[in-house]
Amino acid sequence: MSEPAISVQNLSRSFGKLEAVKEVSFDVAAGSVCGFIGANGAGKTTTMRIIASLDYPNAGCVKVGGHDVVNSPVKVRSLIGWMPDHFGNYANVTVLEYLDFYARALGYRGKDRQMRVQEVMEFADLLPLSDRFSNKLSKGMTQRLGLGRSLLHDPEVLIMDEPAAGLDPKARVELKHLIRILAEEGKTIFISSHILSELGEMCDHLLFMNDGRLVHQGDAESLRVHGKQAGLSLYRVHLIGSSDQLSNWAAVNPNVEYLETLKQGGRIQIDSADPEKAAYILARMIQDGLKVNEFHREERNLEDAFIDLLESTNQATHGAPMTPPPLPINS
Amino acid sequence: MSESISPATEPAPEINPIISGLSDFSDRISPMIVKELRQGLRTRAFTGTFLILQVILGFAMLGAMLSVSNDTGRMISSMVFFLFSIVALILQPLRGMTSVSTELKDDTLEILSLTRLSSMRIVFGKWASLVSQTALMLAATIPYLVMRYFFGGMQLFAELALIGTVFYLSMCLTAVTVGFSCSKSALLRALIPLLLIPFGLMTISSMIFGFQFVSMLRLFSFEDTEVIVAFLTFLVLCGYVGYYFLNMGVSRIAAVAENHSFRKRVVSLALMVGVLIVLFLNEPAQQGSLFVVIAFACMIGLDVCTEDSVRVPSVVMPYVKRGAFGKFVGRFFYPGWHSGVFLLLVLLAFTLIVGELTWDRSYGSYYGGRSGLGSEELLMVLGIFYTILAPLLVVRLFINRFSEPFTGYVMVLVLSALLTMLVAIFTEMSRSGGDGFVVLTSWVPGVWLLFMENNEEGTGIVLTGVFLFGVSMLLVSRALIEFRETARLEKQAEDAMREE
After folding, report:
1. Which of A60, A248, B177, B220 has its CA 20 to 30 A from that of A314?
2. Nearest-CA distance B429 → chain A (Å)
3. Is there a single domain that holds both residue A209 and residue A250?
């Protein structure tokens, strides 16, 4: 098995009495796109900063491409492209000068430098902005500039902390497009975001952080079937007639739970994910005289799944159900 | 948008004229200087100052041409020196105050640190760019001095040497402010303008427009060998202070795995020993040895007392590799205040020995003969080391509020200076009973100076000595606790070595 692009083992980091990251372990396979999800203050940015060699762990070991981030920061920095959630740009420096400076700082000289700057500007569609001052750009343009800057040295691993935060839908689509191209090129992308649905589409693997701990890892589907909702399925039922008929019917059927009333009918939950069981329930409804004109399965969205996951984690930790921390969802 | 970002393997495409047009700076110049010059030359601070300087000097020259006076030449000189000194010794250094702090504030420094630019190249690049801009101002000022030559009465060499010295001092002052700008504390950075502007304006005005200007020009004609030696020593010391502050800034923004302390401490100690040897070989100058050691101790103290302790095993690795000897050396040279305390205590002993060996109590009097430190000098040595170490104890024991120890340390120093001034004022006002108040407040670093004022060195030595001893012991005990963590890192480094 090839070495993981990022390896985090028993990572802990505290700031005074605040334990920001608690014994977190995970691997990110080379060439994969890994999403990093968690509410504000969950410890995502701290973990990413340590991976980017910008901070150091109190305990544990973090390696990028097999190199320790604390003991070999220079090697690690040559392998990573870092795109923080927020970064200032320089006053009185144009977009072209900005990239030219970073290309110089990364060791490019002469024609190589010009060529590399051109490639990056073309990729991030920055050529039309070349004369604009870098601190006078919109948020979307700034993110494209940041992406261009982080790609100048053609890093193997790209670490992006909330790259889509604050972007309008158009800029978000553009950014997603660029990330998709990079993923197709085989770069390892480690990306954090609050926009779960977007990460679900984009990522091969998802990591979920809560209160400094890694609470779940897997793909989007694994989250959907995880926790207290595992083994259950949701159905939207439309009736000809009153919704009460459906709620009354559900009340006397032990395998079905009535969840909410809709304009015509309602949502029900069946205690099985088996489609045959659903077919049997539908047959029973019709048999019992309900005039069903629509019956279809609803996918659990990732946001719901994540909140359920937080609830179950909190229950396991604190022994009682707790309201999960509010999760800002931009989607 | 293009569909590929990896470097092309196919024949290189044509470079866009927009990009190929960007060749204003050679590849040989440091990227940091290129960026800082591009930025700096467009700022209002530079363009405004440059234009105002030209306009005022232009009008001054015009006015001088129209007036008929024997003193016109000197007036022009004064004007040129005054304006250039304001720009070079106040305005340009003040611009240094925001050079690194802006990067810290805007989160751009972290991104910079991910490039090949070391923290040293970042800080030195910022400094070099500001110095280059001052050089541009100087170049624009020189034509006025050339024109002034035609008005007669000019001491060409002395005036050129003076303006060169102003430029050199500007370099050193800018280095100090750039070093300070590596602090995140706005409070600390606000202190420098508060000190620099009034003090600078007063000094420059009195030097240029007072009688000192003529005597200064006489000095700068370098007719006396002693003056040349003193001048060169002054230049070396100023250069050292500038270098030290720049390096202090470098270590403040460096990654935790970088060790800048060893180099800084070794360079300081080596330079100090070098200067002492030069003074030792020149017997009349030996008297200055004590002050040289004290000056170096103050600089080293300011730095070591404000350093964070070593936090990662890779820093102790080079010492651990050299076995027990390496670890022993590390007790004085590991990054951090804890090793700094031991180094300062060694320096205290060294200062007392140097003073005892070189200080001539009856210097200049008819009765010669070396007799070691007098009570006044002993109090001075104890007092200075107490002033260096006491704020460190306050910071380590009581102040956790400051995110940076440097800010806390300097704030305690400033507070001590203010308290000392208040005690001095109170003592002056209440002539009877004032001395008792000095004794009561003798724990304040700086109050030892008042014992010298009141000719009570004996009491001062006892009190300051007791406080210095107490503070040293407390700091040593704290440092030993801190060294437990360092020992853990040494163990980790040893384990890593064994694994290798």
Report:
1. A60
2. 47
3. no
Is B4's CB within 8 Å of A181's CB? yes
Phi and psi torsions of A160, nearest 5°: -125, 115
Contact A240, A71 (CB under 8 A): no
A92 and A240 both lie in a single domain: no
Residue B19 at interface with chain A, using a CB cutoff of 8 Å = yes
Domain around A285: 227-298
| Residue A287 forms contact with B (CB below 8 Å) | no
Q: List pLDDT tens digits, range A289-324.
A: 888 988 888 776 677 777 777 777 776 665 544 444
Q: CA-nearest residue of chain A to B312?
A: A70
Give B215-225 pLDDT, tens digit per residue: 777 788 777 77
Which has the higher per-residue pLDDT, A92 or B184?
A92
Contact A188, A5 (CB under 8 A): yes
- Report ipTM for this prediction: 0.77
CB of A168 closer than 8 Å to CB of A18: no
For residue range B354-396, what is the model confidence (pLDDT) as tens digits? 888 888 766 554 445 556 788 888 999 999 999 999 999 998 8
CB contact under 8 A, B314 and A130: no
Contacts of B20 in chain A (CB under 8 A): 114
E strand intervals along chain A: 6-15, 18-28, 33-38, 59-64, 67-68, 80-83, 157-161, 188-192, 205-210, 213-218, 233-239, 256-262, 265-270, 292-298
Is A330 domain-assigned? no
Decide if pLDDT at B78 tops 90.
no
Q: Which residues pair with A208 in a beta bridge?
A: A37, A216
CATH code, domain with A86: 3.40.50.300
More confident residue, B79 or A195: B79
Cα–Cα distances in angstroms (integers) from residue B210 to residues A160, B69, B81, B104, B442, in the given order: 61, 19, 13, 42, 39
CB contact under 8 Å between A73 and B257, yes or no, is yes
Q: Are residues A218 and A275 in the same domain?
A: no
- Do A234 and A212 share a structural domain? no
User: Looking at the structure, do residues A88 and A207 belong to the same domain, yes or no?
Assistant: yes
When divided into structural domains, chain A yields a total of: 2
Q: Which residues does chain B have within 8 Å of residue A111's beta carbon, measured at their own beta carbons? A: 12, 15
Does the beta-carbon distance from B1 to A124 stay under 8 Å?
A: yes
**Tens digit of pLDDT for each residue in A144-156?**
899 999 999 999 9
Are A172 and A236 within one domain? no
Q: Of A105, A122, A131, which is closest to B2 when you measure between CB atoms?
A: A122
| Contact: A88, B107; criterion CB under 8 Å | yes
- DSSP reduced 3-state for B129: helix
- A313 inside domain: no
Residues of B with Cβ-Cβ distance to A182 under 8 angstroms: 5
Last residue of some domain: A224, A247, A279?
A: A224
**φ, ψ dihedrals at A94, nearest 5°:** -75, 165
**Residue A309 within a domain:** no
At A256, which CATH number?
Answer: 3.30.70.100
Kindly report which listed range (A76-85, A303-312, B154-163, B418-427) carries the lowest average pLDDT score. A303-312
* Widest pairwise Cα distance in chain A: 81
In the stretch 97-136 of chain A, residues with CB closer than 8 A to chain B read 97, 100-102, 104-107, 109-111, 113-125, 127, 130-131
The answer to whether A182 contacts B5, with C-beta atoms less than 8 Å apart, is yes
DSSP H helices in A37-72: 44-51
**Do B60 and B175 form a contact (C-beta atoms < 8 A)?**
no
Q: Residues B423, B453: contact at Cβ < 8 Å?
A: no
β-bridge pairing A157-161 and A233-239: unpaired
Strands A233-239 and A265-270, by their bridges, are: antiparallel
Q: Residue B463 pLDDT more than 70?
A: yes
> Same domain for A92 and A103?
yes
Residue A316 within a domain: no
What is the reported pLDDT for B380? 92
